[in-house]
Design a protein that fits this description.
Strand order of the largest sheet: 1-2-4-3
Helix content: 25-40%
Number of domains: 1
CATH class: Alpha Beta
Distance between the termini: 27 Å
CATH superfamily: Histidine kinase-like ATPase, C-terminal domain
Strand content: 25-35%
CATH topology: Heat Shock Protein 90
Length: 116
């Protein structure tokens, strides 16, 4: 994930949009980890897109993968002994909006962060 984090941090710095950098970087790390663990078939990769929405004053991050499968946050908090299940809960808590869109093949998982 260091490459993904550096890519996103560089964009945020170049756009002078570092106010929410910690939230954005944590969420992009969680989404990239999920893409690798659950959304990328063997031999395939994923794409990261980051957009500065000047009119809406927001940062949008998208992860495009070619895998199938449903993406949804857990119904409740994971147990203390559970090794996973927190990623999308973090995204839902930190991002101002998030969702999933269809892509052929695969899907796009996105999150948005409003800027001051």
């Amino acid at each position: 994930m260091p490459v993904v984090r550096r890519f996103v941090r560089k964009a945020l710095v170049e756009w002078a949009c570092e106010e929410r950098a910690d939230d954005v970087l944590l969420c992009v790390t969680e989404l990239a980890t999920n893409a690798l663990r659950h959304g990328v078939p063997p031999g395939r990769g994923f794409r990261v897109h980051i957009y500065l929405e000047r009119i809406e004053k927001a940062i949008r991050v998208e992860l495009h993968d070619s895998g199938d499968g449903e993406v949804r946050a857990a119904d409740g908090p994971p147990g203390a002994e559970d090794e996973g299940g927190r990623g999308l809960l973090l995204v839902a808590a930190l991002a101002d909006a998030w969702g999933v869109e269809e892509r052929s093949p695969g899907k796009i998982v996105w999150c948005e962060f409003l800027l001051p």
